[in-house]
Structures are given as structure tokens and as C-alpha cells.
Amino acid sequence: ALLWGIEKALTPQDLAGRRVLVTAGPTQEAMDPVRFLSNHSTGKMGYAVAARAALRGAETTLVSGPTALDTPAGVQRVDVVSACEMYDAVVSRAAEQDMIVKAAAVGDYRPAETAAEKLKKGEGELTLALARNPDILAELGRKKRPGQLLCGFAMETQSLLENAAEKLRRKNCDMLVANSLRDAGAGFGTDTNVATLLFADGRRETPPLMSKEALADVILDRLLAMRQARA
Amino acid sequence: ALLWGIEKALTPQDLAGRRVLVTAGPTQEAMDPVRFLSNHSTGKMGYAVAARAALRGAETTLVSGPTALDTPAGVQRVDVVSACEMYDAVVSRAAEQDMIVKAAAVGDYRPAETAAEKLKKGEGELTLALARNPDILAELGRKKRPGQLLCGFAMETQSLLENAAEKLRRKNCDMLVANSLRDAGAGFGTDTNVATLLFADGRRETPPLMSKEALADVILDRLLAMRQARA
What we know:
Helix content of chain A is about 30%, strand content about 25%. The first copy, chain A, has six helices and 14 strands.
């Protein structure tokens, strides 16, 4: 805490007075008390954004799915497990935020029913009915108030930039961070990231391979610049 | 390594010359490069058995699904992801083992097809076809050679002991460790465990609540006693 205070004192407080909400990690969608559907997100990118936002002076809330990571200093962390829990935690806190960075890899589907007791296995095949989870980013885009900035993430293995541009528009984002799982140095569990930033005005920017902390600063820089350009 | 050498020198080497194989952790069953089916196992119980076996002098192999745990000193670790990979890693090493402790929570089902690219989500419901995974414990029971000892685990939320006794018989185990997810101090992620040990001759034993390390020693004690009674 002392070291963090010193590091903060040495960091320009260019986000002081801003409220930033970040989501991170995977969600887990329960089939029963034992089994679940999930994904390979480790939460590192979102945690890096939250850590940097707090160091730069923002009042920072991190809504996190299950991860093995420590809470960054200065960050208010809210733990959730499922996509429905994340939806409630995020949407209920959205109105008061200046910037929302939705880095979590939220499960698109959940088992249509969750069994209260462990399911007994049978012989042969089984079909699992999956229901669509609520779309958090779309809801944030619909409810975005004037001046609020919304940054989404897209992770694809193919047709990344076309899908990302379409997602940016459809979800009413101001900025979208597009990650390819196929790029060396990018993706789940790595400490570095390669991403293309897409902006609502059509601009695109591809920073070089850098640490997730450095990329977090670039993301926050771009959001802050948009905020200042509008003010 | 020095401290471990000292601890080992102070530990009776009652498993010297024995080969022990332990499985631990969950498996992950891929839907696509991003999504998977898994379970809440952290691997702590199996890692404790492997650690204690190595300290007691056994030549110890640990076949582990994805966990956040460090490899115990003196243990040969083999990493796998899916149930099919675990099946191959275990069955190919089974013949030379004196004791096999199958503590892993192996996924019973996998997606019938794994997509090479990330699946695009659609609107509304989806059904996921699941295929049964090979039954590792049953295969080990079928191939068990004279003198080899096989210990399985059962984790249930209801009818635990009836299901465990039936599993012990059906899978040709010598011993089965039955855990209830409903007991305080037992189950996923805890450092303690409450379990009932069931034996092929019908005996049952319920040690008091204890650390997973202490329960690991009890499990190894009982296997060693069976081995010595038969010799």
C-alpha cells in the first residue's frame, strides 16, 4: 500500500474525478453443483485496465468473474460467477460511470436448466439445452448517457476486423479492442497483447506488441482523448 | 529442495520401491478454441496424495488436469487437458504401477464435436450434443494385475454411500474415497476433507475432519496395509 501510494504520487492523475467500471475474467455457467461451461479468459487484460485506471486517479470498480488474480490496489472489486450475475452487477452500476471497459469474456450461453443435485451420468450421448445469456454490452450501448464512453472487446479466430467493426456499430460502442487468438503474443493467459483498436468514427490503430499494462494505458489514453475532444 | 530432502530423511520410507500413480484436477472438454465444459475440482486432494507418496519414498507419477497448483517435490508430473488425454496418459502407465489413486474429477461428457474456429453465437436456444468420455477407472479395474491396488473417488450430493459402494464393486476398486459436497469442510477448494473410506471387503471407515495432507496419509496407510496383508 505504501509502494502503491508512492507510485500513484508519481503518476499523472489524469483520470482524477472520473468513474471507471471495468469487467474482467470468464463467467461460469452451472449445469449442476459440479459441472459448468466456461472459457479460457484469465482476466489479465481487464485487471490491467482497472489497475492502471486506479493509479491514474479514477474511482475504479472491477466486476470480475472467477479468476486466480489479486485485486489491484485502489480498486473496488465485485465478484460474480455467471453471466446473469455479471449483467446485474454491471447494469446496476452503469449510470454513474464516465467510462466502461468491458473486457470480460462473458459466456454467451448457459445451460437452460441448472440441476440442484449432481446429474448422474448415463450411457451414450446426451443433449444439453443452452439458453442465450443477456447481452451486457448491447444493454450498456442502449442505455449509454451523453458523454459516457463505452469500450468493448472482440476475440475471434477468423474475420476479426470485419466482425469487430460490425460489433462496434451494433453495440453502440465508442471504441472496440479486437484481439486475435491466432496472433503470437496475444490471447488468453499471456502477459502481452496484440490488438487493433477500432473507433466509432472509423479510425483504426494497431499498437505494437506490448505488455497488457501498457496496452491498458493506451486504451485509457484514447478514451480520455475522446472525452476531452467532446468537452 | 534442501528442506524437502530433510523432511524426506525424517519421514519413514514405507513406500520405498513402490510405484504410485495419482490423477488430480478437473478436465476441460473443448467446444471450440474458447469455450469448454469443466468442473470445480482444484486438484488439492490428488496433489496431497502425490506429495505424501513421494515423501514416503514412492516413485510417484501425477497425471494432472489444468490446475493452479505447483508440482509437489519429488513427483513426476504429466499435464493433460481433456478426459481423452487423461485416459491415454493413465492407461499407458498403469501396468507398471503398484498403487493407483484416481482423485481427478474427469469430465463424463465432452462436446460431440469440437469446432476448430470460435463458434458464432446466434439468437435463442442452442442444443449441444455431448458424447460420453471413456471411463478411466473402469478400464483400470478391468486391467488390474494381481497385487496392484486401485483407489477411486466418488463425489456426490445425495445417496453418497449407496452410490459409492456400487461404484467400488462395478469398477473393481480395492478402496473408494467417498466425499459429500454437502458436508462442511469437504469438497472443492477446501484445505480439509471429510470422507468415508469404503473397502472391497465391505469395511467402512470415516476419519475425522482433517487436512487433505493428513487424509492423503490415511489413504496411503490403508493401501499399504492391504498390500502387506496380501504379501
